[in-house]
């Protein structure tokens, strides 16, 4: 049965307008994005098939073009739309961090870093350069690496902090393995970065580790 024949209160779009986006299931949200289904299959049915195939929204968002396009009804246009949605979310959160004190908005920082780092298959090291009010100046990727390592150098972080006239820095990297705990190497690097920035009177506010289902703050754990 096509969605247009469903009771109004069961249609994803009407449900969202009546109760808000948070009231919808993952499949219903995805169905609104898809807009139409396939012959004999509603947009919600197609959304459920996609989620079953990729196992989660996160995996769907990070699927490469060839895998995404292999699903009937999907293609380059839908893939481009999906990537655009993610990038708009990242930019919206970045704008929020440019207007608010990042140090007192830890959840906003977490959400932003999750959008940038979670689901990547290789390790990346990012830095958020902040002004004296701890508002975001710019976010940069400092290193991309392998499954287990993205090599970053303290002098490079210090150089970039000087270029941006930053008063504080937040750094983050992901663990593609899904393990959220900081390794001995993570802790050692954090101390090196903190020392390098301290010479410039730039404060390292936090080091976040982004894993599959957790974002760990080394400042909150007492490691920083």
Any key phrases for this structure?
alpha+beta, 2 domains, 45% helix, 15% strand, elongated, 224 residues, 9 helices, Cytidine Deaminase, domain 2, five-stranded mixed beta sheet, 5 strands
Span between termini: 56 Å
The helix/strand order is HHHHHHHEEHEHEE
Total strands: 5
How much of the residues is beta strand, in percent? 15-25%
Number of domains: 2
Query: Any idea what the CATH architecture of the largest domain is?
Result: 3-Layer(aba) Sandwich
In angstroms, what is the radius of gyration? 20 Å
Mean pLDDT figure: 86
Uncertain segments of ≥5 residues (pLDDT<50)? none
How would you describe the overall organization of this protein?
This protein is of the alpha+beta class and 224 residues long. It is built from nine helices and five strands; from the N terminus they run H-H-H-H-H-H-H-E-E-H-E-H-E-E. The chain starts with 11 loop residues before the first helix and ends in a 7-residue tail after the last strand. The protein is elongated. It folds into two domains: 3-74, no CATH class; 104-217, 3-Layer(aba) Sandwich (Cytidine Deaminase, domain 2). 45% of the residues lie in helices and 15% in strands. A five-stranded mixed β-sheet has the order 2-1-3-4-5, sandwiched between helices.
């Amino acid at each position: 049965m096509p969605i247009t024949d469903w009771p109004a209160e069961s249609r994803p779009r009407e449900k969202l307008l009546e109760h808000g986006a948070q009231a919808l299931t993952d499949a219903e949200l995805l169905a609104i994005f898809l807009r139409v289904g396939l012959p004999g299959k509603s947009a919600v049915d197609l959304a459920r098939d996609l989620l079953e195939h990729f196992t989660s929204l996160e995996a769907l968002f990070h699927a490469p073009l060839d895998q995404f396009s292999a699903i009937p009804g999907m293609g380059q246009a839908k893939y481009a739309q999906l990537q655009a949605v993610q990038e708009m979310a990242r930019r919206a959160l970045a704008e929020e961090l440019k207007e608010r004190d990042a140090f007192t908005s830890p959840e906003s920082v977490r959400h932003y870093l999750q959008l940038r780092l979670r689901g990547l298959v290789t390790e990346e090291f990012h830095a958020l350069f902040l002004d004296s009010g701890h508002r975001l100046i710019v976010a940069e990727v400092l290193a991309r690496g392998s499954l287990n390592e993205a090599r970053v150098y303290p002098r490079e972080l210090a150089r970039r902090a000087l270029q941006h006239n930053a008063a504080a820095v937040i750094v983050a990297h992901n663990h593609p393995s899904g393990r959220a705990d900081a390794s001995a190497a993570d802790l050692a690097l954090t101390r090196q970065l903190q020392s390098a920035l301290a010479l410039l009177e730039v404060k390292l506010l936090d080091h976040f580790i982004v894993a599959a289902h957790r974002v760990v703050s080394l400042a909150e754990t007492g490691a920083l």
